[in-house]
Amino acid sequence: MTDLHPAESLGAQSPIRTLRLLRLLGDAGTAGLSLAGLVAQSGLSKPTCRRLLIALMEEGMAVQDPATRLYFLGREIYLLGMVAGDRYGIHRVALDSVTRLAQRTGDAAFLQVRHGDDVVCLVREDGTFPLRSHVLKAGDRHLLGAGAGPLAILGALPEAEAEAYLAGHARPLAERYPALGPLLPGLLRETRERGYSLNRGVLFPGSWGMAMAIRGPSGRIEACLSLAAVESRMQPDREPELAALLAGEVRLVEQRLAREPGPATPLPGSTRRKPSP
Is the dihedral of CA 205, 136, 134, 194 positive or negative? Predict the structure, then answer.
């Protein structure tokens, strides 16, 4: 009997099943998933799931924490994403703006993108101020409304769309962010009035954030630029300066997106189209 590579023994469905596991690991983010969790969510059998995971780990696409036995996306996925980011829109055109925001404010600056009902942090750049907020890093994701960036994106959506989202996600928001629920409607109103969000340590005491949404050429809300700092760095006397810096960089990113050749490219993962026959 010929020994086959784990992926090769699964036949023609192997690529589809493998991609399903990768998407599940991506959705899990820094929380990771157990083998049992992957089996339950993928619908695959335990032996099939294990063989695919072994193949992914051999290629560096997935890793397993030896202590918790949880699975995560691997380094090769990160590297491929960076390569893809050089070609596809928002990462490439916004990277300079993130760097400038960190340099000019001295605080942490971020690029975050919408992915369905989640907002994913693509880039973090730290400034020079020695006291930093460490609550958000590249790869982290939160529901719309949870944190400065997700709140800025939610606040920039059409009001009817935002209200429908809140009505349909009341339970997951309450479960994942118990301190946020009662405050979110008021924060959303403030965000719409200002044109940017301000998170006064709601999720993590002492860690404040500010963000402003980015519109693509079609007018669709695609992403945001955000800042995070310790509480003393985002008091009212400094707020106008930070808001002006964010507005300038958001304007620049939107102008650069508008000059991109061809139709606007969807963000990675924002749509999943079936291949043409």
Answer: negative
Contacts of 159 (CB under 8 A, 6+ apart): 192
Q: Six-digit token pair at 65? A: 């924490």
Q: What is the pLDDT of residue 102?
A: 96
What value does the mean pLDDT take over residues 175-183? 87
Instruction: Select from 31, 34, 76 the least CA-distant residue to 53.
Output: 34
Can you give the pTM of this predicted structure? 0.67
Q: Do 121 and 223 lie in a common domain?
A: yes
Domain shared by 114 and 210, yes or no: yes
Q: Which domain holds residue 215?
A: 86-258
Q: Given pLDDT bands bounded at 50, 70 and 90, which one contains residue 261?
A: low
